[in-house]
Specification:
Number of helices: 37
Radius of gyration: 38 Å
Oligomer: single chain
CATH topology of the largest domain: Calcium-transporting ATPase, cytoplasmic domain N
CATH class of the largest domain: Alpha Beta
Largest sheet: 11 strands, mixed
Distance between the termini: 67 Å
Length: about 1050
């Protein structure tokens, strides 16, 4: 053995892995330090699941324990080509003139971590880019916002406009030189290189391109990045997005996408670890027609937690259950109850580790399986240990060892799992657990009555958002077992269609079973998930859940997270087969528990189906179906169906499929997408979406490292989008509109002046004003507005607009519709800028041409006109930004006054006597500004120009506010009215108290009895988000209904 870097690993190498090491390539397990060639891995980097999974070497190679024996290994592996299917592997090992089938259970995939195994030896099957992890990885893309792309287009248009203006003025120069300029040749000849009016026009064109270049907003990009940096710091500093439990703050990992947060239309979310805590608990069960579990009102008195310690010393102290009737049934020896928990203790793939006597640690491949085994443990049926051929339990204090004859493992098609065991008395029994619809079809006819009762219980559990399984068993004779065992071994040894043959063998034995009952497990959500999903849905954001979990548990989670809180409260699932689209749409009502079957019409009536289901259904698709839906001939139909539904849930999808779904929506809907996840299996999706958000959870930091934004709780997403995203979009749009306006107002004055100066490329303003206009005189106020502006004018120092953004989610829609900055808004800003330039040029031109000083000297000189126009321009653009600013801070005030003060200070200094003495050639117009600004007619001209520029804007905005108010205007008015009413109420209360100070309070006599005890008991305190979600589903006056009314 020798140490090598990952980059040097090649196919055919044998690698030794040690505990807690990452797997460097896709390996075939040859041998391990554990008995029977077992090893334990964690696959969080692949599927997001943090639970431990088991892999096993081929039996013939498990004895190759040391490096010497492995060095002599000369087997040959023939397998499938590289692919991205994480849950499948098909191959054959040829060794010692025999062949052995290989499955996914014999493989360690790159990205896994070896756990609780001292050493493991593996043969490299795929390395580098051929590994399944790399096959699922997406490419890193440079992300740009839609505003960036629009800005680039507009800048090109502006540059074309600049060229057009240059051509117009150049043509004017040629005409003027030929018609008028030729008359001045005797005493004002052309410069030596110029010999014709055409050449003069050519030079004039380039001169005007240089003079008018300020219309092209070069400084815009720098200002945009400064504003984005400020927005990113606001996200980082937001205390309401700080998780005290994790000590983790929100982080903006990029500064280029902030305004796009205000335009999101589709959210693609992982489930495990993102929406849920990945913590399962045994909640309810149905045994032989009797239901057990927590049935109390979440707002009522809480029952006492059962104490299992006195009954069972091996019980898990963290297990919670409240229904003592189930424990009594176990104690009195009810046979069905015993068989129920015996099944849970045997039918699983959980591994047990006993660190000390009675201290058990279960390692389950899925959290729900661990919850079921833990439940059986607490009720007296304790799973202790297993070997490849035995399962040891403790049943009500008595150790029992069962012979494990076969495991019929779970897959997404079978939707069930079975084990066949022989008890110490020699009786052979098959135990099975799985989905209700699958197991009900395989029961004996005598179970009809029990099946009907259990089905009703399952509907109740599903309505509560619980994950359900049905349990059944079958007794086998020795002859039946022998015959079936031979059939299964034949299917297992098959080299072609092995999976289909095994499935047929499993189907043969899993028949004529007896029903035991059903289980219901609660997958705990993260805090605030239902509320967040509801609010985002009311903001017209469509939410797609892309998860690697099973379909049944994901549908239950859909109900709990309020994803299907549509008016019809229905769920729709499309099935796709290898032959094409399976024409079936299953819709299951979440409100009453009853379901209905809808069959797809022929393609000719597909549009009518879309009209019927629009907004009323949630689409549920599994990974196998999704593979066909993503094919080129089906993708448009899939997109049309999915986008017509309120929510979409994709189950059992691979990381690559997650990215493909995101790319599909980006391709066909042209909408802004956001992907959020917490594991390495979400990296491709995060990279593909316009915006990637990483949850810093229990599955590593790969998602965070690949993301654009990160935080620790899903509930922070509503604040990121509805507050920070909306503000960033609003501020950026106002900034861009104002920036284009002020640049055109400034530059177009040169254009008009060209018609009055013989098209000689003479500037209106002096060179220092041109240099400092965008740098000093107008830069700070627009930056302040772009960084600090909000929507509402707040009457007090307390900022409540972020609360209003969450209270009224519909305020988010202007960003989705791109209403605040688009090509139409751009042309409006340009038109306003051109109008302002016309006023700033022609009003001073008309007035000053006839005006005189108090001494009678005419004011119609170039410097007076330039100073008047420049002063009016600075005042107008600062007044305009004052009108555009919706939220004033001290910084806004300071920046506006600094801009005005700096203009007058610098302008007076540049025309002072001191600078003239130091630089007489550069500052020749001494005293011009002082003389101009002392003239009353100049200030009257500036005031008139300012009024003509600003009054139409005010009138237009006032008419728009009264005739076509936006939602933000309505909310602002409602807020002001409520504040005014509250103030009047407080004042009237104060006057009443001052007038009737001797009157006794009527509170104690008017108040209802019993609230004191209610408060001290804590029953009226704030309930958890889960209880709140349950309460909301039962009461029409819930917070969800309130939000919908506001919508």
């Amino acid at each position: 053995l020798q140490k090598e870097k990952w980059m040097n690993v090649r196919v055919g190498d044998i690698i030794k892995l040690e505990n807690n090491q990452f797997v460097a390539a896709d390996l075939l397990v040859l041998s391990t330090s554990e008995p029977h060639g077992l090893c334990y891995i964690e696959t969080a980097e692949l599927d997001g699941e943090t639970n431990t999974k088991v892999r096993q070497s081929v039996s013939v190679t498990s004895e190759l324990g040391d490096s010497n024996n492995l060095a002599s290994f000369n087997g040959e592996v023939v397998c499938e080509p590289p692919n991205n299917k994480l849950d499948r592997f098909s191959g054959t090992l040829f060794w010692r003139e025999k062949k052995y089938p290989l499955t996914n259970q014999n493989m360690l995939l790159r990205g896994c971590v070896l756990r609780n195994t001292e050493a493991c030896y593996g043969l490299v099957i795929f390395a580098g880019p051929d590994t399944k992890l790399m096959q699922n990885s997406g490419r890193t893309k440079f992300k740009r916002t839609s505003i960036d792309r629009l800005m680039n287009t507009l800048v090109l248009w502006i540059f074309g406009f600049l060229v057009c203006m240059g051509v117009i003025l150049a043509v004017g120069n040629a005409v003027w030189e030929r018609e008028v300029g030729s008359l001045f040749q005797s005493y004002l000849p052309w410069d030596p290189p110029v010999d014709s009016c055409l050449f003069s026009a050519f030079l004039s064109f380039w001169s005007y391109v240089i003079i008018l270049n300020t219309v092209v907003p070069i400084s815009l990009y720098v200002s945009v990045e400064v504003i984005r940096l400020g927005h990113s710091y606001f996200i980082n500093w937001d205390q309401q997005m700080f998780c005290s439990q994790c000590n983790t703050a929100a982080e903006a990992r990029t500064t280029t996408l902030n305004e796009e947060l205000g335009q999101v239309e589709y959210i693609f979310s992982d489930k495990t670890g993102t929406l849920t805590q990945n913590i399962m608990s045994f909640n309810k069960c149905s045994i032989n027609g009797q239901t057990y579990g927590e049935v109390t009102d979440p707002l009522g008195p809480q029952p006492k937690k059962l104490d299992f310690a006195t009954f069972n010393p091996l019980a898990d102290p963290d297990f919670c259950f409240y229904d003592d009737t189930l424990l009594e049934a176990v104690k009195v020896g009810d046979s069905c109850t015993h068989e129920f928990f015996r099944l849970l203790s045997l039918c699983h793939t959980v591994m047990s580790e006993e660190k000390s006597e009675g201290e058990l640690l279960y390692k389950a491949q899925s959290p729900d399986e661990g919850a079921l085994v833990t439940a059986a443990r607490n009720f007296g049926f304790v799973f202790r240990s297993r070997t490849p051929g035995t399962v040891t339990t403790t049943e009500l204090g008595r150790p029992v060892t069962y012979t494990l004859l076969a495991i019929l493992d779970f897959n997404n098609i079978r939707k069930r799992m079975s084990v066949i065991v022989r008890n110490p008395e020699g009786r052979i029994r098959l135990y099975c657990k799985g989905a209700d619809m699958v197991l009900f079809e395989r029961l004996r006819p005598c179970n009809q009555e029990l099946m009907s009762i259990t089905s009703d219980h399952l509907n109740e559990y599903a309505a509560d958002g619980l994950r359900t399984l049905v349990l059944a068993y079958r007794d086998l004779t020795e002859e039946e077992w022998e015959a079936w065992s031979e059939s299964r071994h034949g299917a297992d040894r098959a080299t072609s269609c092995r999976e289909d043959r095994l499935a047929a063998a499993y189907e043969e034995i899993e028949q004529d079973m007896m029903l035991l009952g059903a289980t219901a497990i609660e997958d705990k959500l993260q805090e605030g998930v239902p509320e967040t999903l509801t609010i985002l849905s009311l903001a017209n954001i469509k939410i797609w859940v892309l998860t690697g979990d099973k379909q049944g548990e994901t549908r239950a989670r859909d109900r709990m997270t309020a994803l299907s809180q549509t008016r019809g409260d229905t769920t729709e699932r499309w099935g796709f087969t290898d032959n094409g689209l399976k024409e079936e749409v299953e819709a299951e009502g979440t409100g009453g528990g009853g379901g209905k079957q809808l069959h797809c019409p022929p393609p000719s009536s597909f549009s009518s189906l879309m009209d019927n289901i629009s907004g009323e259904f949630a689409l549920v698709v599994n990974g196998h179906s999704l593979a066909h839906a993503l094919e080129r001939d089906m993708e448009m139909e899939f997109v049309s169906t999915a986008c017509a539904c309120k929510a979409v849930i994709c189950c059992r999808v691979t990381p690559l499929q997650k990215a493909q779904v995101v790319e599909l929506i980006k391709k066909h809907k042209k909408a802004v997408t956001l992907a959020i996840g917490d594991g390495a299996n979400d990296v491709s999706m995060i990279k593909s979406a316009h915006i990637g958000v990483g949850i810093s959870g229990q599955e590593g930091i790969q998602a965070v490292l690949a993301s654009d934004y990160s935080f620790s709780q899903f509930r922070f997403l509503q604040r990121l989008l509805l507050v920070h995203g909306r503000w960033s979009y609003l501020r950026m749009c106002r900034f861009l509109c104002y920036f284009f306006y002020k640049n055109f107002a400034f530059t177009m004055v040169h254009f008009w002046f060209g018609f009055f100066c013989g098209f000689s490329a003479q500037t209106v303003y002096d060179q220092f004003f041109i240099t400092l206009y965008n740098i000093v005189y107008t830069s700070l106020p627009v930056l302040a507005m772009g960084i600090f502006d909000q929507v509402w004018e707040i009457e007090s120092f307390k900022d409540v607009s972020d609360q209003k953004s969450l209270e009224y989610p519909k305020l988010y829609e202007p960003g989705q519709l791109n209403l605040l900055f688009n090509k139409r808004e751009f042309f409006i800003c340009i038109a306003q800028g051109i109008y302002t330039s016309l006023v700033l040029f022609f009003v001073p031109y008309a007035i000053l041409s006839e005006a005189t000083q108090s001494t009678g000297v005419p004011l119609a000189d170039y410097q007076t006109f330039a100073v008047t126009t420049a002063t009016a321009l600075v005042i107008v653009v600062n007044v305009q930004i004052a009108l555009d600013t919706g939220f004033w801070t001290v910084i806004n005030h300071v920046f506006v006054w600094i801009s005005l003060g700096s203009y007058f200070t610098i302008t007076l200094a540049l025309h002072s006597h001191t600078l003239f003495q130091i630089f007489p050639k550069q500052f020749r117009f001494i005293g011009t500004v002082q003389s101009t600004l002392l003239q009353p007619v100049v200030w009257l001209t500036i005031a008139l120009a300012t009024a003509i520029c600003i009054v139409p804007v005010l009138a237009f905005r006032l008419l728009k506010l009264n005739l076509t108010p936006q939602l933000s205007d309505t909310v602002r008015k409602r807020t002001q009215i409520s504040l005014s009413c509250a103030l009047q109420h407080v004042m009237s209360e104060g006057r009443l108290g001052a007038r009737n100070w001797s009157r006794r309070s009527g509170y104690a006599f008017a108040h209802q009895e019993g609230f004191g005890e209610l408060i001290t008991s804590g029953k009226n305190m704030r309930v958890s988000s889960l209880a709140l979600g349950s309460f909301a589903s039962k009461h029409s006056s819930s917070w969800i209904d309130t939000l919908r009314r506001k919508k």
